[in-house]
């Protein structure tokens, strides 16, 4: 498997699912490793801002 195919398999769930079980077994571990978040942690996030934080928006006129 080429480096391009390996990277595509890491990034593209649909492509990875299309690979045979043997091909998926040969994929090296993703260099960033596995990231798992608990449901409790996900419940505290709204976009990229914690729901505990106050969000303020600029009310300045558009100067473009």
Give me the Rg, rounded. 20 Å
DSSP strand content: 5-15%
Category from helices, strands and their pairing: mainly alpha
Strand count: 2
By DSSP (H or I, 4+ residues per run), the number of helices equals: 4
Descriptive key words:
39% helix; 6% strand; mainly alpha
What would your notes on this structure say?
The chain has a two-stranded antiparallel ribbon with strand order 1-2. It contains four helices and two strands. By secondary structure, it is mainly α. The longest helix is centred in the N-terminal third of the chain and has 9 residues, at 3-11.
SSE blueprint:
Layout: H1 3-11, H2 13-18, H3 21-26, H4 39-42, E1 45-46, E2 49-50
Antiparallel strand pairs: 1-2
Summarize the structure.
This protein is mainly alpha-helical and 64 residues long.
